[in-house]
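FORM 7B: Structural annotation worksheet

SECTION A. Query
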Amino acid sequence: MLDVTALVDEFPGPDAKVTAVSSDVMPGGTALNASVTFAYLGGDATLVTSLGASGLIRDFLVEDLVQYGVHVEDICTDPAYRVPVSTVVSTRKLGTRMIINDAAEDCSSLVDRSDFLADGFDLIQLDQYERHFVEQQYAAIREFDGPVILDGGSWKGWSTGFLRLTDIPIVSEVFCQGGPRAFAAMCNEMSITRWAVTRGARGVLWRDGQSEGEIPAVRVDAVDTLGAGDIFHGAFCHAYLRSGDFAPALASASQVAARSCQSVGTRSWMND
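SECTION B. Predicted structure
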């Protein structure tokens, strides 16, 4: 995704105008931000995504990912497909944001990569997008010999299928309509024994077999929360692969995500 961003002190009211504290155009999207974070922390990341036809946006995204050391696998063969554009306005006073997503659908004309998951990966993270590719690779993902992580932001019509592929779902508190308790029951029905629910400033709830707990949020003066959840997931995957310890990896990811909220956008924290 391409993010067009603006940071303001306060959201404007109807028919009002405000001057941005800062503005930018940057590569975005949940899996992209997670993969850049994973690579920045020292991991070897491959982003499987749809880039579509050649052009300015595609070139911009690829150049950025190469700069951060992320390998890119373009799975879309539709020459008419274009990368979605998202408009994001964040407020410095409240540390909140509003997002207007593009109406573009996932690419459904895909390259045949039935061998892709045999390339020696240690971990897979799914983010509920590229669902046509996930459906195409469903059997291979089920047979994958490694942890499959789910980044679940909001419930979608195909969320149940993604959950059934997942070893460790890490979802937001709004993912399940009934909240964390209903999500816990859903995981129990699916025999998922390791999961977490992120709750922003109220920390993270987690369960690992018979153990459960809560990780308090790291207290920071938030400037911009854009991409914090994506960064959390990329940092979790990196920490979890290194240690194999679930709760400590969640705590480490919380630290990284909190650090990212102290500066503007999804990349400034990497330069601090």
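SECTION C. Observations
The mean pLDDT is 92. The chain has one domain: 29-82+106-271.

SECTION D. Sign-off
Analyst initials: ____
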